[in-house]
Amino acid sequence: MTQQQETTLHYPLDSTLPGPAETIEVVPGVKWLRMALPFALDHINLWLLRDRQEDGHGQLREGWTVVDCCVNRAEAREQWEQVFANGLEGLPILRVIVTHMHPDHIGLAGWLCRRWQAPLWISATDYNVARVAMADKDSFGGESGADFYQLHGQRDETFLGHVRGRGNYYSSLVSPLPTAYHRLIDGLSLDIGGRSWQCIAGYGHAPEHMALHCPELNLLISGDMVLPRISANVSVHATEPEANPLQLFMDSLQRYLALPADTYVLPSHGKPFTGLHQRIRQLLEHHQERLADIMQAARSQALCAADTLPILFKRQLDVHQMTFAMGEALAHLHYLWFGKQLQRRMDAQGVLRFSLSSS
Fold first, then answer.
1. CA atoms of 43 and 229, how far apart (whole Å)
2. pLDDT at 167 over 80
3. Which residue range(s) make up the domain with 26?
4. Whether 219 contacts 30, CB under 8 Å
5. Is residue 357 part of a domain?
6. Which residues form a coiled coil (predicted)?
7. Could you give the CA distance from residue 326 to residue 307 in angstroms, rounded to a whole number?
8. CB under 8 Å to 331, separation ≥6 — which residues?
9. Contact predicate 36/55, CB 8 Å
């Protein structure tokens, strides 16, 4: 994101950030938590929404709904325990909402649900993909993952060894999930503390991501779909090798233009901001520029996904970042391939390459 682009966004809280295990009230009844992540993207924003829910005896209970949970690790659990002691005003957690199944969002959902006997709310697609990922020892890695990256031109043995060694990677970051859940679906209206929150489905970043919009508060909990400084990773994975996630992501972004331009956006990474419409246009332009860069490079040679990494990423990538980068590169190539701007062929070395379409 350029400095000029960032000046079009406004950060109502300026540089204020919640400290470890601290909460900041964004608007009445909505609290912001920020927890550390052990990745290059080093934090996640979590949200507490003041709520009241009817118990099994028809009585209203006062408490909180949690939106997103952080990864399953001791540091995050310790921070949550401090929040339970100091940030809940003596009230319980009544419900756990997860925007999508990536480990930084769903990681402690099962732990929180068991800790508070609270139900999990999530889209059906993300719940079931998460259950499969928990059971599959090669999810997001293993031999099948390494074979997939090799098919797309990645021959760096250090990286491939890293991928092969990622067995049980997902389950190492996610606590066991509840065996039952409440389904979030596009257009569903949730009553949270007497206010209506509308579910907005988004695709491309996750199987069925759910953002939450409260018209009364003019507030959008955007998850990873709309971030202020970066674009969410959009990847093709070995489990769905013929996917076109960038098309899905860009189409999903367009839907947020129906919300008011002055919507207050609470993202999963970065600071709360206003300037939703400007940010959506920036994200769409960013991807169109990267697509144009790939088309320009394809005039000189047929490209595999590994060839496009220096086109899309100007910084040095570590092995962890490389998995996201390869998926992102392939997502851009697939967008052009599905749009018939590029054609795909396998070369003599068994690598899939994309070249300018002859049609």
1. 13
2. no
3. 3-298
4. yes
5. no
6. none
7. 10
8. 204, 234, 235, 236, 243, 244, 245, 246
9. no
| Secondary structure of residue 222 in the 3-state scheme | strand
Residue 79 lies in a domain: yes
Tokens, residue 291: 């697509």
Residue among 129, 98, 351 nearest 240 (CA): 129
Tell me whether residue 335 is in a domain.
Answer: no
Note the pLDDT of residue 337.
98
Return the amino acid letter for 252: S
Whole-prediction pTM: 0.96
Report residue 270 as tokens. Answer: 């970065």
- Longest pairwise C-alpha distance within the chain: 70
CATH number of the domain that residue 69 is part of: 3.60.15.10
Sign of CA dihedral 163, 287, 279, 252: negative
Examine residue 345 and state whether it is found in any structural domain, yes or no: no
Mean per-residue pLDDT, 340-346? 97
Question: Tell me: the pLDDT tens digits for 37-79?
Answer: 998 889 999 999 999 998 878 889 999 999 999 999 999 999 9
Rg over alpha carbons for the chain, rounded to the nearest Å, is 21
Strand partners, 273: 265
- Contact in structure between 336 and 319 (CB atoms under 8 Å): no
How far apart, in whole angstroms, are the C-alpha atoms of residue 303 and residue 306? 8
Predicted local confidence at residue 340, as pLDDT:
97
Residue 7: what pLDDT?
A: 67
- Residue 168 scores a pLDDT above 90: no
**Number of domains making up the chain:** 1
Residue 5's pLDDT band (cuts 50, 70, 90): low
The pLDDT of residue 21 is 92
